[in-house]
Every structure is written in structure tokens, then in C-alpha cells.
């Protein structure tokens, strides 16, 4: 057995049976091994940013890692932005990066690069294997590290000779790394704070946004008067009709500071103390009052649901019911497309158990509040601010979730970063409805330019405007085998959205907004 | 004056007047400064791989650096693969990477990443500036480092506060770093080797492939019987009718070893001793005989033209004439598209002073030999093996070279990596003819899979085949505002190619091969 075969067999033994791939020469022994050993579903992406973003979306829904297959340092580099997003999402993932053979690397052939150096900042675990016999054990360790709570990116770099050499050994899965126990002291401290009656915000993140954890959080809030909020950008939130809701911490620093004015305590559940997304001259980088005291109920790697349950017990908080939703109109509006009118359509027509992938950026401001009472769904956000995650996330979520509709709400500027994902959706015949919000500008940057006190002149506009020429998303989608249509009013959108969600396979709707 | 204004003014003072950009929030003060200070041509790319590849193509033709404008670590990361190619091409370039403000970075907001760590492996110079007063001096040092022979990528990381803070100071250009003198010992040693009469290969790279240097190399070869060859992948070669020609070192290791069999001496001019592109089990990583002796006439940072001129003098090599070219038929063939038939069309119809960007991969095997006697032109290659450089290089070369036609010979799989470059070509109305060679597979990898002794099964084919669904490059181009047409025979291609080259603005031809 060569190293590549031990790689495939150990991945399968560890429960990793899906591989998003863009292979190259140094990975051909792995590809050949995949042919010989059944059981791995391989999905080709035409760019590595698609590959890593899809593995992120897959793991958010499957709750277990996919593998990626990347080619040398530059192939990894192309995937780094979405690895950054996955790192910020605490997504479990196993990167397999093929590289120059051990003897070849010192010769500095053209494709040689600092693969390990590039991988390390986005990885919780990084290793370069140097012999075939070690491949299996390294794979098992990578999967273990990726799955260790709260989850993370493990990067395994395999010089081509360790794949082609004989002596490969399949490794058994390693025991999961135990989740750290919830600290009784932290629960006592949070209990004291919540009983004080002082204005308190409980900030939830990660697995604290699952259905059961949210229910505990709402018991605590109801019993103590504390406010609940989630972090701004979350890997996955269970929401919709019949589920407990939390608002998100506002993105804009000033709005967040206004919202949190008067808060005396922050209780953190699975997140660090929040910072604004960017800094601005003369403005605080913290969205909460300077004199607020920050308490940690549980760190990201702890069992957040258990911590909330213990806090419920300590507070003796009685059960609560999900408030009845207002009757949701199935009627949709008419007329011009606006964030609110599109949100109304989404709220009314979102399919049951849809998976919403949100990279809608500025135009999407009304979408999250507007879908609060929609059919039950999961909401996946861009987590690390590296745009271009939406379409790949949708691809991966759809691979992980047959039978559920994926709805990708996609800003046009961000969508152009990784539009190659559309082709993989077509090839895999995935049930994805893509809604491109074509405002034909980097709208967020026009706001930011105004924030710095500038009136945009021609040079600035040329860098922030995506018109001239207009992108034609219908042709772009068709060019990659995805059917598509355009709408420029609410009725047109509602008709297309309802139709697209009933279809089998992907469909793209370009909203000219 | 704030830091951003000193940045723009110092760049202009140092002769950097073109900026390929994809800005974000942390760069808004730079964008605002560009509005206030005239003189910088800004070209927007819809993905950072377009931005960095375009800056590479620009500098290869302009002979001076462009600036890039990139947004934080992930924006830089998206540009790394083409920075790797630029690093391998010794291309002068000044990366401006905006980043989190100095006080904000420790708060680890979502977009915070290891910007400097990612930049360093592809940069000859890297600096993070920490105060506004230092920005100007850092820019001047960056330009100096980028322009130091043989040229390199300088990466300047600017936290947003150093751009918005007052106290910026414009710096004067720094004196160029002197080019190291050619070593008389090295010239004497090469003279001895070449006079020995033993089989010798002179391997040329970098600026040794300019017109004057090639003429000296041919005088040496004619006087001594030495063979001449260039490295396989070159940043820029002056070639065509009326110019001296050199073959390239073959890409395939076995072919290269056969070609160099019997060589006793290698004389290196501007390159390290060659290695094969990849390693293969049981094969040498060196393309030359084990017992060949390697001599260095000049290192990449020396004046290669001067070294060859000194060697000419030492050998008393008489002038030589460019051999008369065979009469080049303006007739083109008929029938099926093959590498040879397409090469014949290119040879016959390439416009005078065309700039050819070659990322044609497997299907392009006949293009370089087939255009040897075409109208005089420059030939730009993918240098670092990180695919996705072709369309961005063409964009940048066209920005640098108004009045010259750029012909991009583009494999389909590689073209999909950075297809967003088409939009920038349309926006800037650049005279680029793009020929997409649509074989609808990663053909090079099918060869490589055969090399490892495997017959591709379904899993492998699914990862190496770009059909299902077929990409439609005409629609993809149209979707980004570029006119396009398809040809499936030689006559059709010749007609379209001649028409496209006479047009103003970009035109894409999809060859279904």
C-alpha cells in the first residue's frame, strides 16, 4: 500500500467521505488511489476558493469535516481567503495539500513555495509528512484536531513522494479530544451578575445558536431580564417560525454602541469580547460601554449548551414558550425592489428547512429581520469578512443536505470573487436558488468613503462602481450551465423565486436593484 | 497632509503612476487621496488575483513597477498565486496592503489575519508601517527594492490609522541600488570552458532574452559551437522575424534529458541550475547529465547583457547576422483545429509588435516553435506554475502598451481561475484578442495520471474533466461585456483572429478543440 492509499483509507475510517478538490500533478497518486478505493465522494471546484468555501459550507451543515484537495503552495493560497472564513467560523476541515517531493523541494523548481507558512495562520493544526509510513497516523491526528471543539482547520501537507512510496499504513480513528468541562465558578459568577438586576447582555455565538441552547438562553433572559444577542456574523443559526429568536449585534459601530448603551455587564457564551469590524478615527473599537464589565460564561471550546443549561439550573429559570408568530402573509408586495420588499418575499416564500447562505452585504440589511417568522431554516453567514464565501458555502451546504433547498443571497461584487462555484452546482445538480443582488457597485465602500468625509470623484467612483460594463449574471450563469432569469420588480422576483425553489437543480435569479 | 496623501505623492514622485486595485474599507483614505491628487491611473479588478497578475504583466512590458491596492490579509491572500508568479518572474511591483489600524489589530476583529506572514514568502521586501510620518519613506524604499535588479515584489502593509493620521511626509525617490559588476573571474572561466570545445550549453534567462543580449549570445555560440537555450518559462522574450531565436528547455523531464544528453558544461546566465518542474518516482530531478559541470557566468541580479558582451569580447567573437527567415506563408490551412494548425494561423497572422501571453498549456505545444518566424513580438509566459496568470497578464500588458495588440493564448481550465480579468479589459477598452483553447479537460493532469501508471476511472475523470456541463466561453465573455465568437475549424479561427486583431477593444475567440 502506498502513502496515498493509506491516506484515502484512513480518511474513510475516520468518517471523512467527501472531498472538495482541485488536484494537480503532485496529487495524482491520491487521485489514482481514489479510483481504486470506493467510498469517497469527490466534488471538483474550478478554483481553490470554491473548494475551501464549499468544505466550510459542508461541515457547517454535516457537523463533520470534509477533506479538501489542493495543489502546492499556490493552490492553497487561492483557498486561503475562504480558509480564513472557515477558521473564524470554527469549521472542522481537513486540508490535504500536495507538494513538491522531499528531494525536489531544495531545488526550488518554479512551483515551490512556502506551503506550510501560508497554511499555519488559518489552521489549528499543521503538519508536513516526510514518509509514507506516517501518512495514516497524520491523517487520523488531523481529523482529531479538526473535530476538537469548537472545530478547526487542520492542514496536512503531503510531499508527492510520501504518496507514491510504499509502506503506507492505515490508522484507526483517534479518540475525540474531550470537551473542557464548564467552569462552576464561571456559572456562579454569571448567576451573581444576572441576579444583580443590573443591565446585562448575554452574547451568544457558535453552538449557543442551536435550537436547544437558544431555548435555555431564553429561559435565562425571561427569568432575569437580561438581554440576548448573537454575534454579528455566525456560522449557523437555527431560526424561523416556532424557534426562539435573537437579534444580532449590529454591524455598524455607532448603531451597536447606541443599542448597547446602558449595559453594565456582558456575559460571553462562546465568543471573545466583541470589537467593531473596522476602526474609525476617533471612535471606540468596542461596541459596548467603557464601564461595562465583561464575564466569560463559556469559551468557544466548551460545551455551550451545557453551560447555558447549568446557568438555567442555578437561576432556577422556568421553561418558556416560543412566542406565537404573527400570521405571516403569503401575499407578497408589488412594485420596486428594495431590501424590505425582497425580504418580504423571502419571509413569505422561504421553503421549509431551507438553508440560507447570506452574503447579501448592504442590500441585505432587511433580510435577517424580515425572515424571523419564515418557515424554519438555518442561516449561514460570511464569518471572516473575506468576501467570496457565499456561492462556495451554498455549494458545500447543498452537498451535505440532500432534500433541503439552499437559498444563496448574494451581493454581486462578492459573488464575482468565486463565481466558478456555479459550475460545480450545475455539475452536481444541486438544489440551490441563487439570488444575485445586482446593485452594480461596491455599495458598502461608497458608505465607507462617505464615512471618511470624502465626496467620491471620478477616480474613486471608478474603483467602487461595477457598472461600465454591467455584469450580466444570466449569461454568466448560463455560461457555466446554470439556468437563470432576471427580475426588476417584486412580482417578477416572487414568481421566479417560487418557481426556482420547486425545481430540481440550481437556478439563478438576477435582481437588478 | 495625512499618510494616504504622502503615499500617493511619493508613489508618483518615484515614477509609479499606475495602480491595479481592489480596495476595501481600510483603504478608503487612500482612495480619497487618489481623488484629490491627480496623476495615478487606477484600474479596478474584480478579484485580487486579477490585480496582482495585471501588475505583473504591466511591469514586464513597462519595465517599471505598478502599484497594487489590496484589502487586508485575505485580499492579499487572493492575490498570492499571481504574486508567486511575479516573484518567479523577478517582476518589479509595489503591493500596497491596507490593514487593521494599529490599535484595532489586538482586538482580533473578524478580518484580522497574518498579513505580513502571508506576504513575506513572495516578497523581496516587506514592511508594516506604524506611523503616518514614516509612510513616504517606506514607499520610496519599497520602490527602490522593487526596482533593484533583477526586480521583485515589495509589499508595504499600511494599517488604516497611518493613512488617516496627519503628519505624512512626501519622500524623494531613493537612488537605484547599483547593479553588481560582472565578475571578471566568471567571464574568464566561461571563456575557458567555451574554448575547450567540449559540448556546452549556455542557458539564458531574464534580461538575457532581450534583443541585444540574444545577439551577443548568438555571436558566442557561432564562435564556439556552444548550444543556446532559454529556461522553460520566461517573463518576456523578444522574438519573431529579424530577431535571434533560442529554443526553450523542454518542460518534460525525459525530453529535456534526451535533448541535453552529452552536454559536459552548463553556463548559466541569469538563472539557477535547472530542475524539472515536478519530481517523478525513480527519475532524476535534473534535466542535464549527472557529470555535467555547472558554471555561473552571471547571477540574475547582475547585468546579463554586459556579461554576454564581455564574454563576446574575451572570445573575440565576430558579429553574426540573424538567419534569413523562410518565406512565411500568409495562407492558413484548412480543416480540423490542432495545436499545429492553430500555430500556423498564429505564425501567419500575428500582428506586428504583438504581445503574446501564453497560458495555453498542453494544447499550445506547437505555438512557440510555430511563431518563430512570425512578425516581431514579445512572448510572456506563466513563470511560477500557478495557473490563472494568463488573462491578468494580458490585462496588465495592454494597460502598459497602448498601440500594441495583446494576444492571450489561454487554456480553458487555467482561464477559469481569473476570468474576472475580462471585465477589466472591457471597462478599459483594451486591445486584447483572447483565444480560449477549450479542450474541456485538465489535459495536463490526464497525462500526469498516465505517468503514474493509472488508467483513469470515473472518480479520477470527474476531477480532471471540465465537461458536464461544458463551459460556454462566449456567454461568459458576453456576461462581462466582452464580445466573443466560437470557431471549430481552422478557417473559422483564421477569419475571427484576423477580424479581432483589427478591432478596437477586447474580443474573445473560443476554439473548441
TrEMBL record, chains A, B:
Pfam families: TPP_enzyme_C, TPP_enzyme_N. Keywords: Thiamine pyrophosphate. The keyword Membrane does not apply. Residues 1-106 form the Thiamine pyrophosphate enzyme N-terminal TPP-binding domain. InterPro entries: THDP-binding (IPR029061), Thiamin_PyroP_enz_TPP-bd_dom (IPR012001), TPP_enz (IPR045229), TPP_enzyme_TPP-bd (IPR011766). Residues 374-510 form the Thiamine pyrophosphate enzyme TPP-binding domain. Belongs to the TPP enzyme family. This is Acetolactate synthase large subunit.
